[in-house]
TrEMBL record:
InterPro entries: Homeodomain-like_sf, RD_transcriptional_regulator, Transposase_8. This is Transposase. The lineage of its organism: Bacteria, Bacillati, Actinomycetota, Actinomycetes, Kitasatosporales. It comes from Streptomyces microflavus (Streptomyces lipmanii). One of its GO terms (molecular function) is transposase activity. GO terms for biological process: DNA transposition.
Length: 111
């Protein structure tokens, strides 16, 4: 394979945040396989496996997620729920502003 800047051509570079999110997604799906999660994300199965091993500190056989406590899972769910509720409030405010603007412009165009 031809190399460019020391990196084989054709290899994709993924941001560290994407890699961390991919590992977290794999770990958040009980019973999911690396192959299924990699297919969902559009990455190579071996690539995702490497990211998971790296996140586990490169330990051999450390492909599965560490056991999560129910408290940690509950806290993560609560944090996600709070973020979703905040986003819903923002979207509702934007919708209300657009409705008011539409009413205003509808009355302006009437004769």
């Amino acid at each position: 394979m031809v190399q460019e800047n020391g990196v084989p051509v054709g290899m994709k570079h993924y941001p560290a945040a994407f890699k961390a999110d991919a590992v977290a997604l794999y770990r958040s799906r009980p019973g999911a396989t690396i192959k299924s999660v990699a297919a969902d994300l559009g990455v190579n199965t071996e690539t995702l496996g490497n990211w998971i091993r790296a996140a586990d500190g490169g330990r051999p056989g450390a492909h599965s997620a560490p056991p999560a406590t129910s408290q940690a899972v509950g806290d993560a769910v609560q944090a996600d729920l709070a973020a979703v509720r905040k986003r819903i409030r923002e979207l509702e405010e934007e919708r209300d502003i657009l409705r008011k603007a539409a009413r205003y412009f509808a009355t302006e165009t009437r004769w």
